[in-house]
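Interim report, section 4.2 (structural modelling).
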Amino acid sequence: MSYKVTEEGNISTVHLDGEIDMDVTENAKEVIMPLIEAKKEVHLNLKEVQYMDSSGISVLIESHQKATELGTKVILKEISKSVLKVIMMAKLEQILNLD
Amino acid sequence: MNSSLAQISEKKDFQVNSASLKDVRSFSRDVFDKLQLDQDLKDELVLAIAEAAQNIVKHAYKDDKDTSDKMEIKISLKDNELEIGFFDKGRAVDQNNVRHRKIDDIKPGGLGTFFIQQIMDAVVFKEGEKPWINHLVLTKKI
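Predicted structure of the assembly:
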C-alpha cells in the first residue's frame, strides 16, 4: 500500500493505493487517525485500492467512529468496484459516508 | 470455467505471518486464472481464502507472533466442487469460539469469518493429521 495526502482548507484527502490487508492496516491507521484527531474532515480516496479485506474494513469503521466521536467526518470517495463490493458484503453502505 | 481443467489440485506452503497474505492471494489468483473463473467469483474466493489464512495468523498463532512455522493451503476442484484446505500447527481451534460478530453491531473486527461464510457453501473444521493441528475445509460448488 502507498498513499498521498493532500490538504485543502479543513479537508484532508488521503489517496490510498494498492492492497489493504492485515499487513498494512497499522500503516493506514497511522496516516488517517492523526488527521481525524486534528478534527479534519477526512476524505479517503479509494480509486486505486484494488483489494481490501476485513482488516481494511475495520480501519474504515474505526475511522468513521472516531470521526463521529470527535464531531468530524470521514467520507469515502471514488470507491473502486472491488472495495465497494466488500463494503456491501459487510452491509456498511448505509453506515459509512459513501460519495 | 475452463472445461479442460475440470480437475485441479495445487498446494503451497506459506510462512505464518501477515506479510505472507499477499503471497496467499497471488497463489490463489494463479490457480483461479487457470480455471478461468469469472472475475467476481475469483475475487470472492480470493477474499475467503485470505480471510481464512489471516485467521490462522491472528488466532491460531495469537501467542506466537514470531513463529517460523508454515501453513499449507491446498486448492482442489473435482466434479465442479471447489475444496480449499488450510493446514496449520498453531493452537487447536475451538469451534465453539469461531463465530462472527453480529453484523448490525458495528465495530471493527469480527468480519473475516462472516465473509468466509457468505462466500463459501460450507466451512468445516477438522482435526489435522500429523504434523498438522488444524485442518479447515472450505467448499463451494462452482
